[in-house]
Amino acid sequence: MPNDAPFPRILYDAYSKIEILEADIVYVYTDFRALGIHVQEFQNRAAFCSAIVQPLLDAGKTVLTTTFTYTSEGHFDPAITPTRLGAINKWILKAPDVKRSEHPIFSYAAVGPKAGELVENIGKSAFGHDSVFDRLYGENAAFLYVGRPVWMGNTIIHHIEQICGATYRVNKAFTTQVYRGDEYIGTDFSAFVRRRDVPGYDFAFDFKKASQKMYDAGLVRQVGNDTELTNISAHGYDDVAALLKTIFYENPSIFIDKAFIET
Length: 263
Known about the structure:
globular
């Protein structure tokens, strides 16, 4: 049961309504532009971040989030290379028993009983075989959005694009040298990146059309207002992945802002 401060109570009620505790693995997205007002209820920002994650850990869940660094050259060490993302992404790297994947561009950190098997000794493809997304299938995983509208995007689309063969992206390997301390892990980790060779196209992603289909299919559970960035939303992994594959095959431009047909 949460304390009497407003934000823990908001979270407690929301997590119950969106049934996030029914998942075993929770992939967290956050945006604190609106909900960040509740930081003043806590001793510091770390305590605020902990309030979001701790109810999940207390329930025995594994919590996963992005810790991207975009280290496309030089050295990357998952133990010490800082993330370039936001508050909770930085916070999780300081959590006890945190595990972090070795991909130098798109790394993930996880805490909880399945953390190691989910992110450690990851495959070299960011979105393909033996990636975090590949490992999430069949694991009763769900996405949780705290203050971040679903329509703002989800990196799962790059997994769908890769396995479904999007022609506006190409696989690119990077020369970054990956170490864990003194142990050399390897190089040539890859990502499915936007093409830059088609005049008039930048292939910027647009998740609005796809996310609307997720709502229409009844896959998203939500409280709060995503226009005001006060939403707390959730959806499953396997069912959404299946839907996204279907709509991509129906419209291969569903995830980009301008229709594209390879000629």
